[in-house]
Amino acid sequence: MNGFLYELGKAPLTAKFGCVVVLVYILVAIFAPVLAPFGESEVVGYEYQPWSAENWLGTDSLGRDMATRMIYGARNTIGIALLTTVIAFLAGSIAGFFAAVLQGWVDQLLSRAVDVVISIPTLIFALLLLTIFGASVTSLIGVIALIYATFVYRIARAVAMGIVVMDYVEAAQVRGEGLWWIMRKEILPNAAPPLVAEFGLRFCFVFLTISGLSFLGLGIQPPAADWGSMVRENASLITFGDLTPLIPAAAIGLLTVAVNFIVDWMLHKASGLKT
Amino acid sequence: MHHLLRLFVKRLALGFLTLFVVSLVIFMSIELLPGDVAQQVLGQSATPENLAAFRRELGLDQPPLTRYLDWLEGFLQGDLGNSLISGLPIRELISERMYNTFFLAGFAALISVPLALVLGVVSALYRGTALDKSINVLALTAISVPEFFVGYILVWLLAVEFALFPSIANLSEDASLGDRIYRTFLPALTLTLIVTAHMMRMTRASLINLLALPYIEMAKLKGASQRRLIVIHALPNAIAPIVTVIAINLAYLIVGVVIVEVVFVYPGMGQLLVDSVAKRDFTVVQTACLIFAATYILFNLASDLISIASNPRLLHRK
Amino acid sequence: MNTFGSNLRIGRRGFLAGSAALVGLSQMPRAAQAQPQKGGTFRLSVNQGGTSDTLNPAEASGSQQIMVGWALRNNLTEIGSDNKLKPELAVSWASDDAQTWVFKLRPGVTFHNGKSLTPDDVIASLNLHRGEDSTSGAKSLLAGVDTLAAEGEDTVVITLSAPNADFPFILSDYHFQIMPVGNDGALDMSGTGTGGYILESWKPGVKTVLKRNPDYWKEGAAHFDEVELLLISDSSAATTALVTGEIDAVQSAEYKTLSLLGRDKNVEIESISGGFHPVFAMQSGQTPFNDNNVRLALKYGVDREALVKQVLRGHGTVANDHPVAPSMPFYDASLEQRAYDPDKAKFHLKEAGLDSLTVPLSVSDSLFAGAVDAVTLYREHAAPAGIDVQVVREPGDGYWSDVWMKKPFFTSSWGARPVPDMIFATAYSKGGDWNESQFSNDSFQQLMLAARSELDEAKRTQMYGDMQAILRDEGGSVIPFFRNFVYARRADVQHGEDVASNWSLDGYKAIERWWKS
């Protein structure tokens, strides 16, 4: 921990900013019930009330407190997106590395299975699966993790393929090192940078996909608040120049930028470049 | 070269296998969906009698395996069949929409791919500077808002405030190319904003990742300039990951644009597919999914071949 | 013959000024309308339908099919802008016993292909919805038809198996469009009709183009030269296109953007009281709903005023647990309106021997905008009475096949019907195809059958009033409100003094009734 703080002290301003933002978001998510002035789906007044002392950010299309929805939205959005992305990355990169190192029929089997899933359009596949399994949070996480794992697999495998042919990996194989050793010590460190960059992007794509599904009527089901759906619910106002939907969109945007600032910093450190 | 050709043939064969499995997966998924064509079409006005008549008429009273094999037999003979509901030939139903979809994807790709490469190289070249940071922040902002929101903002700005472009595509059959470009501009711009950032960041990340490698250090010691380092030494070796990410995004432009189609009322394949899933119109879903899958497989194959061709170690492997 | 209740139309300024309370209560004075003008292109957007929609009226369901169908073809009878039954292809009809109906066809009417209208066309078009192999969604509406026979060149005689005084109303249903019989004896369902517009191109899910029929038989109808009908499923895309003038009318306007839309001087919003209503239906044959006290408790536990205000933003009227809307004939205005009363709900619960009640209520947002909100609010209203209405959100996909009439307590929605009998027969009669609440009441059943053969208007009014009371007090359906049709048009699109309230967009006939100034 001290080592991390020391590193952070030396980090560029953007990375510090990113860490602070992410920390605030996580705190808000954890302490949502304490911080929120009203209940998650409580109707407190008329629709679209302006900002006031009582409703800091006004009210939404059903007269619910916008600030409260934003706070609970942090919890639902970050929680679900993070969990989904982590599952997708664990599954996708492990499978990708396996395929790259082992090659042969393992590679064939995994790659062909991934080909099938990935070649069916994402939204259609999600639409089919979510209609079959019902649009609950669990199936949402499962379905989106499955779909994103296939993308991670392709990147992980492509990157690892480039590494596997390197001399030092061949040397390790000649030395008789085990599969896990090679994956951990040789491939992971070298494949990490592009994967980390991908993580930052995919993390954002996940809740964009969720909000896209809400757009088509699946996704996180109301009355639970999530930023993607909040943008969706109020999005049509933007065509009249009303800025309400910008609030949750900005929350998503700020988090994305913050996460990617941290990712950039880690990427920079991992690359070993001094400049 | 022989190695590549063999690989190509092998992958093509695998592609057909993938398509076959996809058709099975789609068929089974549609079977598993709640309700069938008859129930979806009749909706609230369904009675046991008209449901039974409907199913008889469409042959839905046959066992699933028979129906799948019937479809497969026709498909292999080049007969795409008719839509279960409208009875129209699928070829007729799909051709115009497919053209629209490819037109939009091509339009967006023509802008976004060169843009992403240039921005990626520039930000790697000037990494850490204000330029790099502003490109990054802009790119991140562009991808961090949902695509329908990007669409709505563009509509508000370019269609409502400054009435420069139409807010809905409303293509007519005999539209000239110029008119088509004008009416497709907003959706294409929306898609460009969405895909550019992803490709640009991958380009930048791959380049920077290579900069620490010994051969680059070597070139640097020999006095190569930054520009030369990146464009001549790093870029050729970063082709594999860049091509992969471009292929993914090009495929996305074709298969993943349902939402943009909905926002701009653009008559592409995505809308057709969502509609047909909702109505359980199996034959249309099947054909559309197979076209999408084939597109994806071809892009994938192309990106793999280019990756291999660009890496001598992979190319001359024993 | 029958008279419809007054048509209620509130102009944009009307409801903006007075908000919820006055909507649907008063007849607003209207400015004199300009005379219809010919010409122009009418571009309108609808939001129901898909790519697979056909021109087969047996399969018609969404607004895309209905509006195009009625632009191309006519029925024997139609509901006019004033909500009264009008002759269309039938110039007159008569019956002595309400069982044998004689329809005289309009002379000199030709189809778009030049063929003259004959009784055979009518018989074949109606037979599309009859018989074992018929896939028609309107099959049950014609189940009472025994025989169809041509008499001479211009008469069709329809014999029913039992009397039905409202039979001419049934024929105004959108399914019963008249199409020509081809030389091969088969019905021509390609779009050839007797209607005011000729099909130029039919691309369901995208755009349909219609050209004016220069030989249209109907006086003062079909004013636009050309009509473009677009399917726009995203309501905000439709609204924007209306604001930017790329379309002239939208089928439905979102509540949340109404006030913003209302500020636009080029746009007129209309809110028409109609018969569309949701139902919280209990399977009244099952416990606990087989006890009428439980049903009454659930009826007293809903705050209708609050639902109209919050779910409909005032664009509707409270309902009284029966499906007869104030805009329908035989509506009994003297029947006392049930009010929200948690104490009475509690009392009835006690009568049923219960201290509290927990009931899951299935709902889906695909039923109507705000459906889930309505049930969520219902839950809050019923809580003080000791009733826990659990909100069960079901997927919209497959709702009609897997939830509706399958779950013990569920939400459904019903469109307007021109006469009470049409909804009573389908949804409230013993053996009705869609008797969703398993309603089974002998006196109701007898009254319903008797009213069909009764030709005396006063007696019928009395009977239908009694039936409304029975449904209110004993039915298994909680009917909270009737929703208005809320739609918008460009200000340069004009219509006559009245606007029909059976469907949106002037009874889905804006294409032939409206004009551009």
Description:
The complex is a heterotrimer of chains A (275), B (318) and C (517). Chain A is 74% helix and 0% strand. Chain A is mainly α and 275 residues long. In chain A, helix 2 packs across helix 11, helix 9 packs antiparallel against helix 11 and helix 10 crosses helix 11. With 517 residues, chain C is of the alpha+beta class. Chain C has 16 helices and 21 strands. The N terminus of chain C is likely disordered. Chains A and C meet through loops of A and helix 5 and helix 10 of C.
What count of helical segments of chain B does DSSP give? Answer: 15
Principal-axis shape of chain A equals globular
CATH homology superfamily name of the largest domain in chain B: MetI-like
Total helical elements of chain A? 11
User: What CATH architecture label of the largest domain in chain B applies?
Assistant: Orthogonal Bundle
What is the arithmetic mean of pLDDT of chain A?
81
Which terms summarize this structure?
heterotrimer; A: 275 residues; mainly alpha; globular; C: 517 residues; alpha+beta; 11-stranded mixed β-sheet; 4-stranded antiparallel β-sheet; 16 helices; 21 strands; disordered N terminus
SSE topology sketch:
The complex is a heterotrimer of chains A (275), B (318) and C (517).
Chain A: H1 2-10, H2 13-30, H3 32-35, H4 66-102, H5 104-119, H6 122-133, H7 137-164, H8 167-175, H9 179-215, H10 227-234, H11 246-271
Chain B: H1 2-32, H2 37-42, H3 48-58, H4 64-76, H5 90-125, H6 130-144, H7 147-161, H8 177-211, H9 214-221, H10 226-234, H11 239-255, H12 258-264, H13 269-279, H14 282-310, H15 312-315
Helix pairs in contact in B: 1-14, 5-6, 5-8, 5-11, 6-8, 7-8, 7-12, 8-11, 8-12, 9-10, 11-14, 12-13, 13-14
Chain C: E1 9-10, H1 12-18, E2 41-46, H2 63-72, E3 77-79, E4 85-87, E5 90-94, E6 100-105, H3 119-127, E7 145-151, E8 155-160, H4 167-170, E9 197-203, E10 207-212, E11 226-231, H5 235-243, E12 249-250, H6 258-262, E13 267-282, H7 292-300, H8 304-310, E14 316-318, H9 342-351, E15 357-363, H10 371-382, E16 387-393, H11 399-402, E17 409-414, H12 420-427, H13 442-453, H14 457-474, E18 477-478, E19 481-490, E20 493-494, H15 504-508, H16 510-513, E21 515-516
Parallel strand pairs in C: 2-11, 2-12, 15-16
Antiparallel strand pairs in C: 1-13, 3-4, 5-6, 6-8, 7-8, 9-10, 10-11, 12-19, 13-17, 13-18, 13-19, 14-19, 20-21
Helix pairs in contact in C: 7-9, 13-14
